[in-house]
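Hi,

I'm pasting everything inline rather than attaching a file, because the server keeps stripping attachments. The sequence lines come first, and each chain or strand is labelled.
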Amino acid sequence: MEPRAHSVVMDEEKCKGCTNCIKRCPTEAIRVRGGKAFILTERCIDCGECIRTCENHAKKAVADSLETLQQYKYRVALPAPSLYAQFKSEKPEKILAALSQLGFDEIYEVAYAAELTTCAIQQYIRDYREAHGAEAYPLISSSCPVVTRLIQVRFPSLLPNLIPVDPPYITAAKFFLRQRLPALNLSREQVGVFFITPCPAKITDLNNYGKQLVDGAIPINVLFGKVNQLLFRKGDSPSVRESSGVGIGWARAGGENFAVKSENAMAVDGIQNVVALLEEIEMDKLQDIEYIEAMACPQGCVGGALTVENPFVARVMIRKLATQYGDQILPAKVKALYKELTKEQPRFFIHDQVIPAKPVLKLDGDLTKAITKLNQLEEIVTKLPGIDCGACGSPTCRSLAEDIVQNNAQLTDCIIILREQLEELAQRLLVLAQIRPPAMGWETGRKGEKNDPEGIGRGD
Amino acid sequence: MAETRVLLEFPVEGGNFPAAGEAASKVKKTLQKLGIDSDLTRRVSIATYEAEMNIVIHAEYGKITLQVDAEGIWVRAEDRGKGIPDIDQAMLEGFSTAPERIREMGFGAGMGLPNIKKCADQLEIKTKLNVGTTVDMGFYYPAKSKSEKRTT
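And the predicted assembly:
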């Protein structure tokens, strides 16, 4: 896969230029110009809110189709645990078998990687507690790539709070490449590794990891139909499920918390709720919490913008499956594997690259210029109606003011102001139209007279 | 040459807990727009929040004034209220005169002024009993950005 900045893109033909998406974007990254929405890429955090909101399906994720599989000799699927919640009460085994029938030669469950990730997070929290005592809490999970990006853009002071343990989908890919690929006796190019994803943000994250981990990402809603068909076929095809309820549970909000079993943890889901909670953390109001699981999608990964099943239904499904397959204790073989992996490579699960701040909200890099722009912005805000209608193509009056200051919009883009100016002009026109030339009589057009109370027609 | 600065005022209403924190939140957003260092922004926001809460808890009416200029960030929290009888005592961690019903809401733990002192680089409190209190807080830019400023 080519490195790309984002996975959420516009389908210009489908966009009707409405303002639904711009109002929902948590980083105000969308504008409508020339009748079409467009994404300010440096602000986009790939949360997928716009994909969810758009009634015309004009926002989509850049992803791969099943045809891409044909390019590889050996095909590997890394299915996210949220996949198991998409097909009513079908067993994960049957779903995995259907994936095999779709053309995958091998399956590495992300749910299984989530169990290894659980061990790594537990370890990190333990080490952190020893090193820091009660200082600088809460720690924040980096399992949701949207939350990580949100922190980079809007809450950079919280970057040190992020737990630097790679999310399960990254670990699954790393784990396959390390443990299994060498035994296949195939070159890397012959093997196609595909992540089955519930959301666009994970595609972006895999793309930008720094080294090539996967060769493609297929959204759950792309293969849903085919898998569903295969599930109806009679006859069993054997498949092995390695994950337990601990890893499967990760697909729902609170599942990661439940797996990690920190005594003093909390979970939050839904992007606006995450924003509100991060605000509290930045105000030092949650220092008594040890560790926070934050999921951008409602109900967690099962609410991903590229899933099919209703998130609430899917969440219950995940809980049932997790209970059924044992979600109380991490399997001993997982713990043993974790020990083995970290013994050979102590930082196997750790994200080693620095996650930089991306302060894209600032008006200018130079403080003096930023101050000037802010003063202009505040003055424009007082002129705008403050109804945040979005008809100008910017999400709020304040953001229009910012766009004006940055020379990306003008005051008359506001339809209320345009109307006011038109009204003024119309009144002037009316007054001028009613003025009679001297040859037709002076009786109108003098100050104080009923057709020209302002004396506009006096001409002095 | 006119001095380049930002001067913004945010009114604060005593006793209005649902709206408490809005001034601090606006201060934070403003500093983000100005591209102020994120750790400094956080210090200013926390101190402003504490000062705002003090107005909400103890006073009838007040306002927060934010000034940003080339030297630093200046926040003034002034109120009309009963004033502070003993400033030294108020600076002690855990000392609070907040009434029981406010403590029951989880506020008034006696950490307000001590927290402000921790966050601000400069602090001055003027108070007059039964008239009101003015808290002046100053914050300086991190050393690096300050020296950059001198050279330009």
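Residues 145-152 of chain B have pLDDT under 50 and may be disordered.

If the labels don't parse on your end, tell me and I'll reformat.
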